[in-house]
């Protein structure tokens, strides 16, 4: 830890990336303020839930070996099912989306992280290339030494209208809390979009949540017991040509078109692309099905992966001296694990920068380092959506022998890079 004066870190956006950034900065002794535009933390993580599948297992264990344990522990402790295998995915666990936010909120509170809800970062004041304050919806100004933009890429409503099928009332709740505002853009950082195969900007969020109780009893029972239920769909009801539109390319496989794959994350998470309600209700067992998220899930889902900031592998935004980015804001990184990995690094480096110490870059001998490097290079230049759990990044990790589930091997790998416990700084819990 540095001198007597605490570093001040302001994190904008309370999704998994922002929570991870706040925790790693706080563990280095910083005074941390976390701004969140809605009344809940976790952003799109309020409806996801899949962890530890494929290369996410390796990334998770590397982070744990480095001492970034807290958020992974919350997910593990609140998992409804573990070690699940389904099309293209191994050893997945599903956290319960209904309880996890409360657990994370109480953890942040105990760690002494100041959270400010119902408030967006709206504009920045700069001196030269440095941000000196962020102003909020109500005009209040917040000052920090360093800032982390973890505002994600979902919405706002105008993107869903122009690039998607309109507002479908998703968990992002733009009509209530106002749309996402990019702090990087306000600070003058250059931004880019991913593109779909037809050249349209952004990607559709791919999965929807169904109210479990609206499904046939045998489906409900299977979900509760096994965590998973696969229902074949007749060819005439299958949705074609929608798989490449999705943000989560690990599910762009024909099995997700030929079947309805449901998993139990609290709600029944439907891994297949959205179905019009009238079509969905023709599938046996779905006669009374209702969408829980988005509420109009039969029409579409949120648009994501727009306004991604140009950053360095340390997570520092290009062109601004004291702004870091994390999660989807920092690259086409899709997933909770990816958000926690990049958020942890951003918060850590935020403190290192204000203490004038060397910034950390994960080496490419680790899955997390290769993941960041791949995403910022190939992911960005080829418009790929990147995740440790599938698609081209996971193939790349396998080719480089970086994917493993052997925990001892992972610990040794981290030790070899002298990064064991690098994030493990104890703080007083209230
Ligand atoms: C339907 C769906 C299902 C998914 N399922 C999974 C899954 O099972 N497993 C998985 O790993 N990933 C899943 N994902 C992807 C995953 O949720 C995201 O990639 C990841 O959680 C992104 O985290 P983030 O913190 O970068 O962004 P977000 O989750 O988007 O969080 C950004 C936060 O910033 C806030 N914000 C925005 N602008 C401002 C501002 N100006 N001021 C203050 N706050 C602001 C937002 O309100 C939000 O809370 C899913 C995504 C969706 C949409």
Automatic annotation (TrEMBL):
The signal peptide annotation in the UniProt record is none
Entry keyword annotation includes Transmembrane helix: no
Q: What does the UniProt keyword field contain?
A: 4Fe-4S, FAD, Flavoprotein, Iron, Iron-sulfur, Metal-binding, Oxidoreductase
**Pfam families named among the record's database cross-references:** GIDA (PF01134)
Its recorded name reads FAD-dependent oxidoreductase
Cofactor(s) of this protein: FAD
Q: Where is the MnmG N-terminal domain?
A: 8-252, 278-354
GO MF entry, a single one: oxidoreductase activity
